[in-house]
Predict the structure.
Amino acid sequence: MRGPHNVWRLIRTGATFERTGAMRVVLEAMNVPPRLRVLARVMGWPFTFLGLRGDPALPPVTRALTALGPAYIKFGQTLSTRPDIVGIELANQLRYLQDQLPPFPTVQARAAIEAELEQPVAALFSEFSEPVAAASIAQVHRARIAETGEDVAVKVLRPGIVRAFRRDIDAFHLAASLIEWALPSSRRLRPTDVIAHFEGIVMGELDLRLETAAAAEFAANTEQDAGFRVPLPVWHLSGRTVMTLGWAEGAPLGDNDAIDALGVDRMELGERVLQLFLKHALRDGYFHGDMHQGNLKVGADGALIAYDFGIMGQIDEYTRRVYAEILFGFIRKDYRRVAEVHFEAGYVPADRDIDEFARALRSVGEPIFGMDATRISMARLLNYLFEVTERFGMQTRTELILLQRTMVVVEGVARSLNPSINIWHVAQPVVEDYIRTSLGPAALARDLARTARVLSRFGPHLPGAVEAALIRVRDPRDPPAIGRSASPLAWFLAGAALSWAGIVTFLVFF
């Protein structure tokens, strides 16, 4: 990982950033101390002749990342989700980083399909087009299945892309280690964890079997959602380097004129986009993590069609409840409760003052709620919230970063359809419904039933586990002193055993 070749890549990266003017922008955005800024510039300047030029028409950072290739483009897109690291302004710039690259020859795509599916393309598809879209990782062809006549989209990985990404990610790991060593204050932001998270996302995108599974799961979760559709995967025509999905025919969500021509109410569509995202995140804990206009279409029937499932977000049930309570507290302007939720979840250190934190949250919420509907912004709220939680020592919550970033993107999509949309009014019924079903008496009954199922499954083992735990902690010089020397684990097991016995007794006699 830390061989000379990775050092060479970092030198070339630094030289490219210096040559394109991106170095200064990045160092300022990350608020790097002056001495380290000078050191970085001095180390990069002698090698500028090794750097890549890039497209002068692009902004400096976008120019540098685009010139350095697919892995850097993807990393820039990932950093757009981390305003806590690169700053709000730079994060917003990176959101528009494009990964469109020239397509590779169709003959190579055909060869990749035949190698993966072990059949000639002509035997699989009666029609197979030239590339209709090309990005940093893969390109897409429109085709027709020979057996059924169904129109499909066939996604094919770029040749050699896996090896290229692994090589660059190794260099990223080295860079993160150097940053943590040279800039101890950066450790709160966990640079090595950021690279590990990026590696997980990208390596998942490089195995199209995982994206196929994601599409299938997302389609199953949302099957009953009115006005929403997910193209179904064709499993026997998919593999590690090839993915086949039903063709999504419709107007691009970014083309308001085309949407109007379909007779679709854009105001209602904007509300639907936002509410569907919140439903998927809160109800299912599984949501589309790249829900921008380029990955959404509007069908002739007005249905919203989602595709490209390379980035999906997942949050556990407990985190969903915490997030919903935070949103609900802001909606109700109950800043004390929002503060309590942060402390209860362990997001803010217990030694901080909860009343002071609640006042800081009020300073975030009140100015925003005082705005008219056209200016109320979830993005602004989250940006302010980043600043406040950082001041109170809150560690970065990786599981919430993608959710927060996608929420900002979805808000932008909704506003492009209806500039006067009131984000809070649209979100409120979805959040209230989730609170009612997930935090009320019905939710408590479900939690108790789930606990009972777990105890019933492990119940037969509990008596033996309790006996073994008590024997381990017993003082051999004082056999009766089991109660005084028993560990919390032993008492927990004993309580679980009694609970299980109570459940069994209830089932037998009642």
